[in-house]
Amino acid sequence: MSAPNKSYDPVEVEALKPEEIERMRDEALAAFAAAGDLDALQEAKVAHTGGTSPLALANREIGALPPHAKAEAGKRVGQARGAVNKAFAARQTELEAERDARVLVEEAVDVTLPHDRVPAGARHPLTTMMERVADVFVSMGYEVAEGPEVEAEWFNFDALNFGPDHPARQMQDTFFVEGPTGDHGESGVVLRTHTSPVQARAMLDREPPVYIVCPGRVYRTDELDATHTPVFHQIELLAIDEGLTMADLKGTLDHMVQSLFGSDMKTRLRPNYFPFTEPSAEMDMLCYVCKGESVGNPDRPCRTCSSEGWIELGGCGMVNPRVLVACGVDPQKYSGFAFGFGIERMLMFRHNVEDMRDMVEGDVRFTRPFGMEI
Ligand code: PHE
């Protein structure tokens, strides 16, 4: 059994010399003071108070000291460790306060900043106008139907009773994507010149009765100017049922203009010709501004209808039985009516747009006054 080493002098244990302990303490305090954020402080804490830190190692040396030396060395190391822990806690409080203050500033929301720097988009007035018209018919039970814009010549013309030599087929009206091919003059492919081919598609697709409304884009080889555009929009209506007459057509047209322009509106029909309707008519609606009162009344001129009292809307008629047959509908049992008109024109007279080009150029200064309908 070995006796304690009475001659052991704690002063000679390098790590427990007072100036060493002070140095360790001061280094720890300096490291805490230098820590710029809580992460750095945490690192400094591990380095200066952790299990392998100089102070912890010094503390471990105490156990090996003779009893009389233990107390003093213990006190010295204990005081140093106490000072280090206190300094750590103080610096931690300080850095936490700094972080909280910074977060408050960085995450603050400035409620006075302008909120509309990126303006919300809205749909084009042509779209909203088309939907408004379509909605009138949807509320009457009609179904919205669509067809392709690149259309078989057969649907665009043949099925609709346009003869092979009809002038509308000529290049000066129609964009041909593919000419008629083969020796037998098979159907070519065109950009549809009207929404009427959807009538033919609808009749072939469904069993009568058929009630459809078809809004869509159509193409004609017109130059873009104030009153023409090669790409424009039409809305087409088709009703096929037993016993439909021209009176149903007239009532439907009246209902449409009343829904869109007011309850005192009406339409009138003027004879016209379309290959796919018989009889056919041009439809006019009462001028919704002067209600006809400008006619023969120089004191009350009307800009909207040029004092004519009526505004031309589009074409209509009873579906030609030849079209019914071409589309598989029995003309002995069913009859139908159809009409179609241009949306650009309606937008022009309804909102006094003088130049059609404004509608296609995409300048928001044109669309903004129509409001933000989404
Ligand atoms: N499709 C015709 C046009 O583009 C309009 C129309 C539609 C006429 C339906 C009669 C019936 O001019």
TrEMBL record:
Residues 127-369 form the Aminoacyl-transfer RNA synthetases class-II family profile domain. It catalyses: tRNA(Phe) + L-phenylalanine + ATP = L-phenylalanyl-tRNA(Phe) + AMP + diphosphate + H(+). It comes from the Bacteria. InterPro entries: aa-tRNA-synth_II, aa-tRNA-synth_II/BPL/LPL, Phe-tRNA-synth_IIc_asu, Phe-tRNA_ligase_II_N, Phe_tRNA_ligase_alpha1_bac, Phenylalanyl-tRNA_Synthase, tRNA-bd_arm. Its main location: cytoplasm. One of its GO terms (cellular component) is cytoplasm. One of its GO terms (molecular function) is tRNA binding. Mg(2+) binds at residue 278. Its EC number is 6.1.1.20. Pfam families: Phe_tRNA-synt_N (PF02912), tRNA-synt_2d (PF01409). One of its GO terms (biological process) is phenylalanyl-tRNA aminoacylation. Binds 2 magnesium ions per tetramer. It is an enzyme of class 6 (ligase). Transmembrane segments: none annotated. Keywords: Aminoacyl-tRNA synthetase, ATP-binding, Cytoplasm, Ligase, Magnesium, Metal-binding, Nucleotide-binding, Protein biosynthesis. Gene3D superfamilies: Bira Bifunctional Protein, Domain 2 (3.30.930.10). Its cofactor is Mg(2+). It is found in: Cytoplasm. Tetramer of two alpha and two beta subunits. Belongs to the class-II aminoacyl-tRNA synthetase family. Phe-tRNA synthetase alpha subunit type 1 subfamily. This is Phenylalanine--tRNA ligase alpha subunit. The gene is pheS.
